[in-house]
Design goal:
By secondary structure, this protein is α+β, with helices and mostly antiparallel strands. It has helices at about 10-15, 20-30, 45-50, 60-65, 100-115, 130-135, 185-195, and strands at about 35, 55-60, 70-75, 85-90, 115-125, 140, 145-155, 160-170, 170-180, 195-200, 210-215, 240-245, 250-255, 255-260, 265-270, 275-285, 290. The strands form 3 sheets. Strands 3-2-1-4-5-11-10 form a 7-stranded mixed β-sheet, with helices on both faces. A 6-stranded antiparallel β-sheet has the order 12-13-14-15-16-17, with no helix packed on it. Strands 6-7-8-9 form a 4-stranded antiparallel β-sheet, with no helix packed on it. The longest helix is centred in the middle third of the chain and has 14 residues, at about 100-115. The protein is globular. The model is unreliable at about 215-309 (pLDDT under 50).
Length: about 300
């Protein structure tokens, strides 16, 4: 059985992990809830469950999911996923971030941001920066499986195409793929477009990284002791705004807090209950008005929010 993306179910059912669960576990922390996107037959899922994580495993192939044990499974395309819940960790492995289709890659990362908790993280596997320059035909063996990379070509800038062969005894499976390189600037851009930012690389070869949701530092918030005597205007991307509320207001959801954005002329205010928090700039967008809000999250109890005139 071959899945829509060209993976052989029979082969992946025989494949063990290559150390990925340990990387994920160390970055996630003990007991973290994990949403695994593109789980396949569960070669990473099963060790994560054994390590004590509650895992929701997502794949578009029911044949792949039939091999998953110990985790909740969801049969869906990553692009279409909308579970209505958040996780401590969202896992995007298998170099999916190197997809050549920009809309597909954008949709993958949007699904990550949609499902990660505001204090959580997205763990991503990618091709390392040197792989695109050095990729060539090669052969290796592990656990009795022969891995061959052949027909390597570079069909365009930042692209590598190849066919990989997997051989076990007299059985052989092949899969052809094309991957797009992301340098530091491109990676930062695609993450930012999804409301994420790079936190750190998890491996020396930079093939695993940890991204976190964009959010404001508490020390930059108006009313924080570090800002005493200063009037600070902060901005966050419009994507932080969940959508329209009642009476022309906007409702912003940050860590389950609810803020109301009023629109008095050219300047808006963000409010939490009756207390004004900060100013908001009003900029044009495709809908005629982009609201770039100024707000905070996890307000400390040790200091008061500023009163706005």
């Amino acid at each position: 059985m071959i899945t829509p993306d060209g993976c052989a179910v029979e082969f992946y059912a025989r494949l063990s992990d290559f150390g990925e669960p340990a990387i994920v576990h160390d970055a996630a922390g003990a007991g973290a809830s994990i949403l695994e996107l593109g789980c396949g037959t569960g070669r990473i899922t099963h060790p994560l469950v054994a390590l004590g994580h509650q895992v929701v495993a997502v794949d578009e192939s029911p044949e792949m999911l039939a091999h998953v044990r110990g985790a909740q499974t969801v049969c869906a395309r990553i692009e279409d996923l909308s579970l209505g819940r958040r996780f401590d960790v969202v896992l995007l492995a298998s170099h999916l971030i190197n997809a050549t289709g920009i809309p597909v890659r954008t949709a993958f990362l949007a699904a990550c941001r949609r499902h990660v908790a505001d204090d959580g993280c997205v763990i991503i596997q990618c091709h390392g920066p040197d792989w695109f320059a050095t990729a060539t035909e090669s052969e290796s063996m592990r656990d009795g499986i022969v891995f061959r990379l052949r027909d390597v070509s570079r069909p365009g800038p930042d692209l590598v195409s190849a066919t990989v062969e997997y051989v076990i005894g007299d059985q052989c499976w092949t899969q052809t793929f094309t991957a797009m390189s992301l340098d530091d600037a491109a990676l930062a851009t695609v993450l930012a477009d999804a409301g994420l930012r790079l936190d750190r690389y998890l491996t020396q070869d930079r093939t695993w990284l940890r991204a976190v949701p964009e959010r404001l530092s508490l020390s930059r918030l108006p009313g924080h002791p570090a800002q005493e005597g200063r009037r600070t205007r902060l901005q966050v991307p419009c994507r932080a705004v969940a959508g329209p509320g009642q009476h022309g207001d906007l409702v912003i959801h940050i860590r389950h807090s609810r803020f109301r954005v009023d629109v008095p002329g050219d300047v808006m205010r963000v409010r939490r209950g009756r207390q004004a928090c900060a100013d908001v700039d009003e900029l044009p967008d495709a809908a005629g008005r982009q609201k770039r809000a100024v707000f905070g999250q996890n307000w400390p109890r040790s200091w008061k929010l500023p009163e706005m005139s």
